[in-house]
Amino acid sequence: MKFDVIIIGGGLAGMTAATALQEAGLRCAIVAEGLSLQNAPRRGFSAAGGTLLAGDRVVSGRFAGDRLVAVRTEKLGDVELEAENFVLATGKYFSRGLVADMDKVYEPLFGLDVEYDEDRSKWFDPSFAAPQKFLEFGVKCEGGKAVKDGKAIANLYPAGEVLAGVTSAQGDATEAIVKSAVEAVNAIWRK
Amino acid sequence: MEEIVMQETNISAKNFEQCQKCSLCETVCPVMANNPKYAGPKRSGPDGERYRLKNGIFFEDSLKYCLNCKRCEVACPSGVRIADLIQQARIDYGRKAPKLRDVMLASTDQVGPLASAFAPLANFSLGLSPVKGLMDLTIGVDKHRTLPKYASETFVHWFKKNAAAAQEAFGKQISYFHGCYANYNYPQLGKDFVAVMNAFGIGVQLIDGERCCGVAKIANGMIAAATRDAKINIGAFGKSVKEGRDIVTVSTTCTLTLLEEYPELLKVDNSAVRDHISLVEQYLYKGIASGALKPVWKEGFKARAAYHCPCHQERLGWGIFTTELLKMIPGMELIELESNCCGIAGTYGFKKENYKVSQAIGKPLFDNILAVAPDYVACECETCKWQIEMSTGVPVKNPVSILAEALDLEKTAKANR
Amino acid sequence: MPVKNEFDVIIIGGGITGAGTARDCAMRGLKVLLIERQDIATGATGRNHGLLHSGARYAVKDSESAEECIRENKILRRIAANCVEDTGGLFITLPEDADSGFGLDYQATFLEACNKAGIEARAISPREAIEMEPSVNPTLIGAVVVPDGSVDPFRLCSANVTDAVLHGAKVLAYTEFLDFIREGDTILGVKVLDTRSGETAEYRAPVTVNAAGIWGHGVAEKAGVHIGMYPAKGALLVFGHRVNNVVINRCRKSADGDILVPGDSVTVIGTTSTKVPFEECDHMEVTPDEVRLLLREGCALCPALASTRILRAYAGVRPLVADDSDPTGRSISRGIVCLDHETRDGVKGFVSITGGKLMTYRLMAELATDAVCRKLGVSKGCTTAETPLPGSMNGRIESVSKRFEGKPTAGQKGAAGRQGDMVSKITFETEADKQLVCECENVTLAEIKYAVRELGVRNLGDLRRRTRVGMGTCQGTLCIRRAAKALAEALGQPELADKLAADYLDERWKGMRAVGWGDTLREMEFMQRVYKYEKPYSYDEV
Lengths: 191, 417, 542
Known about the structure:
Chain A has 3 helices and 14 strands. Chain A has helices spanning 12-23, 39-47, 174-190; strands spanning 2-8, 28-32, 51-54, 58-64, 67-73, 81-88, 99-100, 105-106, 114-115, 138-139, 141-142, 145-148, 151-152, 156-158. In chain A, the strands form 4 sheets. In chain A, strands 1, 2, 3, 4, 5, 6 and 14 form a 7-stranded mixed sheet that branches. In chain A, strands 11-12-13 form a 3-stranded antiparallel sheet, with no helix packed on it. A two-stranded antiparallel ribbon of chain A has the order 7-8. Among the domains of chain B are: 2-93, Alpha-helical ferredoxin (Fumarate Reductase Iron-sulfur Protein, Chain B, domain 2), CATH 1.10.1060.10; 303-409, 3-Layer(aba) Sandwich (Rossmann fold). Chain B has a 4-stranded parallel sheet, sandwiched between helices. Chain B has a 4-stranded parallel sheet with strand order 6-5-7-8. The longest helix of chain B is centred in the middle third of the chain and has 20 residues, at 223-242. In chain C, strands 6, 7, 8, 15, 16, 17, 18, 19, 20 and 21 form a 10-stranded mixed sheet that branches. Chain C has a 6-stranded mixed sheet with strand order 10-3-2-14-23-22, with helices on both faces. In chain C, helix 1 packs across helix 10 and helix 14 (445-454) packs across helix 16. The longest helix of chain C is centred in the first third of the chain and has 17 residues, at 63-79. Chain C is globular. At the A-B interface, strand 3 of A face helix 1, helix 3, helix 17 and helix 18 of B.
């Protein structure tokens, strides 16, 4: 299936970007594991004719050169979702935009470069109420584009909490999240 | 010693330990919102599982209120198979013998043949109010329910008499899992299926000794019988695949059962045939999108349809195939309804104790349909069809039947020769 | 400064040993004061496996400990039925054990030693072992079945305290020992600090018992007495659910991480053993190396642990005691150490009870009480082995939960499992009482009210030890705010709620940090979000 833009993740960042792009006339699809999407914005996106793959998740991507060409999802199996541009709005650990194991933090869908501290002892502050460093980790970004093995991917735009330094777990981050989504929208729209 | 990979994955039965207790499942559970006796998916599923592992005494009777719509699983951000956990617990711990009523509602392929043979009589007596009142009192089927009508001629009977002989002529062949509904209650769906497939140049064969998929038996605790049927079906599918025919289904619920419940709940291994089972809309979409199948649409076709995605289609994640397919039809105005459960959930809504809850669950959907006021509702699920038609009076059509109407069957046949 | 002298005996330390001693002394008619600087069961008592040893672990090397264990094992099953679960235990032999001299020959030695110590042990085939406990390492080459079980040390300690109080003892928690009141070579009593009010007080009694675990070293120093003690840190991991239903041990010389115990709704692997300085005893952190070691050894017992969610890590400090008979002080005494400081050091009115293990607490208490009674000239004998503890009269969850009208709810069944027949004191008067505060562990508002009313709860940690509130999968993410509110109201101090929640969050956070990856890290992010940003749940429902 072909779309103009595929948005991976349906939280605040993904939904903001998807609705804006769909209303601007691009054909968008959201792949969202779980019900991160709230009902009201979801209605707006659907009303604008957007396609919503709820309860499904991206499992892999197909790259050609410095571009992401298509993704596959768990439920659609061998039916690929192709697009000109992709927005990565998968959030942090809870929504599995980032995964931590005993030794490292990684981005599970495409193996993107992640900014994190290799010294585990720095991840947490003993006081629950203090700022927690692990919440600041996130994917690297170069000119608004995601980075893999040190090289920017030309059509993959991270937005929201998957980005380093953006988290809503320590206080209201609506502004930063929406701002990053708008930047992704602008970058895609300029093309 | 081989180095063990530690803590890379978190594995637990039906992912119950992935649960973060975020409680999103509770916000989408249609039963929890309408029945205070139900503890909800989180507590009945992953929470309950932890304590059941400690001691079976923690099994709760209230798990029976789960209608297995699987909306909790769609909503879960952690991949927990919540509804499966609940069904599994009912299988493992709920040891009471099923009621006669449950056995009758569940044994679709045993009661079906009897009823079809005496269809006029069965339909007459099932529709007559004193009889319905009696059923209400004696076996607990709610009297407000219009029970599904039984057709006088089964699909299989019709197929053998009228269509079987012509199938050999087609180069490509598939096996059709018609399910109990198309066979006993609504043979027209089967007839439409054959017409559409044949138009695309595909021959239709029956599954050798097809049994009920077993969903109703699972829901009503008849696990041994369901497992026996599952093994027969998987054996027959294997034979079909070996002979080069994939299996195509029309019912979302049957499909989910064949694909997911067989290995998860009945422990029947379907891995050899799994990738060869498709829902008809998925099968046709893929064929048309790849150019292998060439539809020729009727001129002047016009319809305004509202698509209701059945719960089990949501869980399969394949609703997009239906909508993309229907959007291909020139003259089709398709409105996608908001995602809601209709409340029937197979045999659930037929039970007297569930009637009120069932109707309350469906209300948002009914209101949505009445507000949209479409020509008809497009929906893949047979039990949703009963519920929506009974509750709104708006007719419900299966997408296959819509295709049968929208396609120029003769020209399509020519294009696909 | 008030001076009081209304006690026969003062016991320092509210761990299981002190609690057991308080009970025994009270049952023999003595006027007892128990002081504890924090809550009961906060030291090593609450920081171990919760293993009801059969004694098999000690059978080969230390038959005396083995015999003590199996005797006490049988006694605890009788007197503490609601704290004990009869899971049975396995001692497995793995192929690699044969390479290090602990093959099936050793198993034969082990079996013989068990039977000699009176421990019913029998060898079974690997296949039978897998049938008995499907999670066991399938490469095992032999297994022995022993009567191991699990025991909840919090509840056991609480039941002893409750019974001591029922027999007239006075218990002061959050009361820290400062110094002795001393006249010449005689101890006359103690000076204490109420850690919450900041007030000091003095209590007098002819005998004082030091039952302060590793902190007993410092207590003895204050009396000018030296006990050669070594703090030995033991780290453990808690897995998210019951991976096994039978205790799994390794049939070889005792080593790190070789016991896997199913306790209540979880499974615990342990332990390590590292000597640590005394200054660290109050601030135990589990290190990444310890986590790795426990996981590696745990996986040898049960490979599924490699991919099972770890809820948290914790560590306790064992009080190892140097053997008095060894002048170098290097060899460690294995068993119970009961010191009458009058005969040993010439200090009158002072007894120390230490060494030993959770399993033998009752025997330790008996020995200490015997020593106290000798000093006081009391001749009444010990009856703690025959008298059931509160809650265990009819402790099986199945029979207890039948006491409720109609079908018991999950919360009532949970309470029955924890509180045994004391559940009859939990009153479910309103619908709110039946509401679950902690959904992971099935703890109702009524059980919280009961714990505050009857079990001396002051903060959420205390509440956790008595009810499991916040001990489940989410580690309190969903319930801490609700529980804090319920507790603060039950205490009659609603303004305390935020402080109670904040303290408990820090405590939960500590255990999670050590294993902060995978699903536990996801939970940690969610926990931060719930308490720092969102309020998606109605905390007013309680």
